[in-house]
Amino acid sequence: MEFKTGHRFRFLLLGLIGLTVLIAGFANWRAQAAALPQVDAKAAVLLDPATGKVLFAKNPDTAMAPASTTKIMTAILAIERGGLSQTIRVSPNAVGIDGSSMALASGERLRMEDLLYGLMLVSGNDAAVAIADAIAGSEAEFARLMTAKARKIGLTNTNYKNPNGLPALNHYSTARDLAKLTAYAMRNSIFARIVATKVKTIPGSKPGETVTLYNHNKLLWRYPYTTGVKTGYTLTAGGCLVAAAKKDGATLISVVLKSNAIYDDSIKLFDYGFKQKSGSRS
Predict the structure, then answer these.
(1) Is 68 annotated in the active site?
(2) Which DSSP symbol is given to 252?
(3) 98-102, 259-263, 278-282: which has the highest mean pLDDT?
(4) I need a labelling partner for 245 at 20 to 30 A (CA). Which of 131, 194, 256, 272 fits?
(5) Distance (Å, rounded) from C-alpha 235 to C-alpha 237?
(6) Degrees (nearest 5) of the Cα angle 236, 241, 244?
(7) pLDDT grade for 24, boundaries at 50, 70 and 90
(8) What residue numbers does the annotated binding site cover?
(9) SUPFAM superfamilies from the entry (predicted)?
(10) What percent of the chain lies above the pLDDT cut of 70?
(11) Concatenated DSSP letters for 124-136?
């Protein structure tokens, strides 16, 4: 009888211990789930570029219209081709493009570097076409080079049809691919310098004239750790923002696509990510 009672007691004790562990694990899971940022974006990714680890993901591999975040690829491709000081003659094809622009005139001459500032700060759709025509002779050929570059750096769910991200059939990317692309691009010091610039004054089309460009990426003002990168918007794509931030030596890249709150979403992701990074170091 004593043996049976002791046997039952041991089983009861083990059961209570197991239940306690289960409850504690469930509570921890609920706490972690509650701590995850709630974002408006249809798709989002938070990437640690140093490790390649994805810290947050929401529909990361859903193909979506990337809008002007397309220009990240346009810029890095142009930078890697070199010749930033070369003078580019604006092609007629680049004039009068819909959406945001530098208001370029046909035949106007600018340095490639100044076009890149216009591309990435004021999101010049005309600048994108001028760059594409200068490098590849046409938008279509430049888009082919963009897609080839995407494959080369491991972007498997991205396809380009133009250099500016205006709506086009089979022009798409994913939050994961955009994060990977940005991690790659931000390793280039010229790219990183351009996208971190809040305000840039460049020569105008007339002698002695200057033009001041203000970065459309308001996160550079709203979140003190921001180091770039690119906004985007079309009716199809909705609000898009690819951003990078650095805090206490740690760098993170966030992507939000089709969001009504691109800045709030991005700040939530960064705050979450930096808290995770801080916790892992303590």
Answers:
(1) yes
(2) E
(3) 259-263
(4) 131
(5) 6
(6) 160
(7) very low
(8) 230
(9) beta-lactamase/transpeptidase-like
(10) 87
(11) -HHHHHHHHHHHH
Query: Which residue is catalytic, options 100, 123, 254, 266?
Result: 123
Amino acid present at 57? A
Q: What is the mean pLDDT of residues 258-272?
A: 99
From CA 226, how far away is CA 246, in angstroms rounded? 7
Domain ranges of the chain: 1-35, 41-281
CATH of domain 41-281: 3.40.710.10
Q: Which of 155, 215, 227 is nearest to 189 (CA)?
A: 227
Distance, in Å, from the CA atom of 56 to the CA atom of 182, rounded to the nearest integer, reads 16
Confidence band, pLDDT 50/70/90 cuts, at residue 17: low
Q: What percentage of the chain has pLDDT greater than the value 90?
A: 83
Between the alpha carbon of residue 246 and those of residues 69, 111, 135, 196, 232, the distances in Å are 20, 30, 33, 12, 22
Catalytic residue at 268? no
Q: Which residues are annotated as a binding site for substrate?
A: 230
Q: How far is CA 242 from the centre of its chain?
A: 2
Residue bearing tokens 């890149």: 116
71 catalytic per annotation: yes
Residues 6+ apart with CB under 8 A from 29: none
